[in-house]
Design goal:
Strand order of the largest sheet: 1-2-6-5
Structural class: alpha+beta
Number of strands: 7
Order of helices and strands: HHHHHHHEEEEEEEHHHHH
Mean pLDDT: 97
Largest sheet: 4 strands, antiparallel
Distance between the termini: 34 Å
Low-confidence stretches: none
Helix content: 40-55%
Length: 394
């Protein structure tokens, strides 16, 4: 593999904006045909964007959370599926940053700078709840492990060079095993059947006695024993995707009304874009999108501030700011993507136009974790000074 190495935040944003425009052109066709974005992901790897959080000491740009969230927002305005695929990639880069040994960091950061992609094998179906992980790491006499389990919603695994697998060791503590995509006993099944996010290939990963060397296993449980930003960063990227979906849907509605819609006969105007009731609706939708973007920026700044001075208080502030951004972004994405049809009129509902992909993507992506619990944690924090819990979903 070979990849460009991005120098700084400004270059990262310029590359993301350029790729977003490139990816936008084929997004609807990929969705309709469920054509998986392998070529586009190769472009993403080659661009260097997947290595922008590698620390400067290891040759990376180590961009801010503000920049990283904007990268995801830009990509999601063009193709929400494509934007979601690397979300877990960056979450598991953070695991290496926080829990990896110097040797592990050197190895994996070199891989990332060369264009390697991480997937995701963490969620399981049929368990008590999302954190009831039953995949096991069984120790072997030589110090390595056998890894066995079944994972679902494994976004990015089909396209990955390395698949981070969340599993429990013999002490029941959570670890992450980084498994190469061609490891014997590993099978990635493309059985994703979601109504939205169609090209994420968020299918099943089966692991049958996969041999994992000890130096490819990291103690993820230690991440949550002190103040941490693992959950805040992961959720910030989800909020950025929702915000991008909303902005993309609004832009699509603007284009449709300007070029294809007819004015309502009672409006007395020549074009739909002059209809005062439509003008009002677009103003209201724009306020929602701008509010989402503002909260996303506020959350990213809180994460950056906590990163510079990580304490229980700064970590709590970051998690709460991200939770607020995620609540509003999720609601806005669904509402704006649905309103697209109301403002555009009957013709916009034609299946052949595929404008419903924005709503399908929003409705599917926002199911990742319930915002009602984020509102609950915000309320507890504001009213009773209760810091949010330490886990990967907040």
């Amino acid at each position: 593999m070979a990849a460009h190495v991005i120098a700084d935040d400004a270059e990262a944003l310029a590359v993301a904006a350029s790729l977003a425009e490139e990816f936008r052109a084929g997004a609807s066709t990929r969705d309709v045909e469920r054509r998986l974005p392998r070529a586009e992901l190769d472009r993403l790897s080659a661009s260097g964007l997947l290595a922008v959080t590698v620390p400067a000491a290891h040759g990376g740009a180590d961009v801010s959370a503000r920049t990283l969230s904007e990268i995801f927002r830009l990509l999601a305005t063009a193709d929400a599926s494509l934007a979601q695929i690397p979300q877990s990639h960056f979450a598991y880069v953070n695991v290496i940053r926080r829990q990896g040994s110097e040797e592990q960091r050197k190895f994996f950061f070199t891989e990332l700078l060369s264009g390697a992609r991480f997937g995701n094998a963490q969620s399981e179906a049929g368990t008590k709840h999302v954190q009831d992980i039953r995949t096991r790491l069984e120790p072997r006499p030589d110090g390595s492990y056998d890894l066995t389990g079944v994972k679902h919603y494994s976004t990015g695994a089909l396209f990955a060079h390395w698949i981070p697998v969340l599993a429990r060791a013999d002490d029941d503590a959570l670890h992450v095993a980084y498994v190469p995509h061609d490891a014997p006993g590993l099978n990635v099944v493309d059985d994703w059947d979601g109504l939205g996010q169609r090209t994420t290939a968020s299918g099943t990963v089966r692991l049958e006695g996969v041999r994992v060397p000890a130096d490819r296993v990291l103690p993820h449980h230690l991440t949550f024993r002190g103040p941490q930003l693992h959950g805040a960063v992961a959720q910030l990227l989800h909020a950025a995707i929702d915000t991008g979906i909303a902005a993309g849907a609004l832009a699509e509605a603007v284009l449709f009304v300007r070029t294809k819609s007819r004015p309502w006969f009672e409006s007395g105007v020549d074009t739909a874009a002059e209809d005062p009731l439509l003008v009002q609706q677009f103003g209201e939708l724009a306020v929602q999108v701008r509010a989402s973007e503002a909260l996303l920026g506020d959350a990213a700044r809180a994460v950056d501030a906590a990163r510079a001075d990580l304490t229980d208080d700064s970590a709590a502030e970051a998690s709460i700011a991200v939770a607020a951004a995620k609540v509003v972004a999720a609601r806005t994405a669904v509402e704006v993507a649905g309103a697209l049809f109301e403002v555009s009129g009957t013709r916009s509902a034609l299946n052949s136009l595929n404008l419903h992909r924005h709503w399908r993507d929003a409705r599917t992506h926002t199911l990742h974790d319930p915002v009602r619990w984020k509102v609950q944690h915000i309320g507890r924090y504001v009213l009773n000074d209760i810091r949010p819990p330490r886990h990967g979903l907040l």
